[in-house]
Amino acid sequence: MPFDVTELVIAIVKALVVFVALLSIVPVLIWMERKVIADIQIRIGPNRAGPFGLLQPLADAIKLIFKENIITQGADKVVYFFAPAVSMVPAIITFAVVPFGDTAHILGRKVLLQVADVNIGILYILALSSLGVYGIVLAGWSSNNKYSLLGGVRSSAQMISYELPLGLALVGPVLLSGSLSLREMINAQGRAGVWFIVPQFLAFAVYLISGFAETNRAPFDLPEAEQELTAGYHTEYSSFRFALFYMAEYVNMVTVGAVATTIFLGGWRGPFGNIVILQPVWFLVKLFAILYFFIWVRGTLPRLRYDKLMKLGWKVLLPLALLNLMVTATVKALAPQSAIPIMSVLSLVLVAIGVIALTIISARSTRTPASGLREPSAEGAFYTWES
Amino acid sequence: MAGNYGYVAVFAIVGVAFAVISLVMSWFLRPHNPSGEKLATYECGEVPVGPAWRQFRVGYYIYLLAFVIFDVEVLFVIPWALALRNLKGQGLGLFAVVDGAIFIAVLAAGLLYAWKKGALKWE
Fold first, then answer.
1. Does A20 reside within a domain?
2. Residue A60 lies in a domain
3. Residue A225 to chain B, least CA–CA distance (Å)
4. What is the number of domains present in chain A?
5. Domain that holds residue A188
6. Is the pLDDT of residue A383 over 60?
7. Is A126 close to B22, i.e. CB distance below 8 A?
8. What ipTM goes with this model?
């Protein structure tokens, strides 16, 4: 392939535009989160810096840049130094395969509104998003702090446990569209005339719940459970390195939301058809709807206990994801025409099964007290700890 | 397609450059003023006892092992899901589904075994 300067310029411009857009969503999202949580808790929220407190995240970032960086005694300096970057970089570059529009014609060239249409899109997302766990576990380990270590191992066990249902949930849409490319997935939803959330609602629910856990968001924010672990893996971090962890969390949230938008909600598709300018707008509208849901869940649900968290992941979500996969595959292989209408009906049945499974499992866990805790005994001894 | 990975590479460079530049930049801007107590690890105001690198519970490793098994399963399931469409075109749809079902059933049996054995129970 001859070297093409224009191609390179397009690549750089696209990378910069997407990167800057991604990093500008983060402060908006932080502001939105604080405002929405404040509304839910009947407070005002940030309202001093700028109109409606819009500049608050910016002020926080500037403050953090000028703060002293503390490297604790006995910390593993190299790992400690690089852990925030290891957490941040995969979070950003996962976004490369997410399409936010169809093709635009710029300077007589067709430009994909997407950094790169890689034909293994979903594998790329699964691979890179699983790298994020390294940043967290290395940060926890290298700080030489017991809270950090516990937060780090907790978080790694949690993230890998929920990665399985997350990955399996995405196989259902892959079966329906027959491709791993995210762009092709959106086209398949266009051809079917229905978003994949309809025939794959169980997969969508499993994906979103696992997404909460993957991004360490409430109700799965055990790695940073304040009452138990101060701040978990980033207890010892200060200055801009803390800011990187903070940003990585929000970028991960945006990525999970963007993937859900693309695979289950039709991506940039919306009414008024093919107006290219509107496509990123639709994408953003759907993305922020999902992000609002993230915040809403955080403001509503209490944190899960660790044994319940593991139970939910392994005993509810993983079997449900496998069930959804098998049903979809069977319908796909045996349906005479398209599998999507049949799946749309079956998805209601699957959701019913999912709700029943969740009810049974959670009913069982309320009846048996957590191990280690005993029921009050006749002698009047209150909850005693075993071992 | 090779061009697409070029785009990904450019994007990755931008991402790495951001992390590196921001870390270096904040190095120049921030004060540096360490003192003994400031650098002590945080243990809610107590003097830290012993190093943090010590044993933690084996339960995490069991989840890790189970994870490796099922993550490989996900990897194998994805090509199967992609091939299903072509196999259906050749009239082998039922064959492909039964094959996949056997593969998943074996692993589901593994999950069930771990479940019954109590490996998935956090205690």
1. no
2. no
3. 15
4. 1
5. 70-358
6. no
7. no
8. 0.85
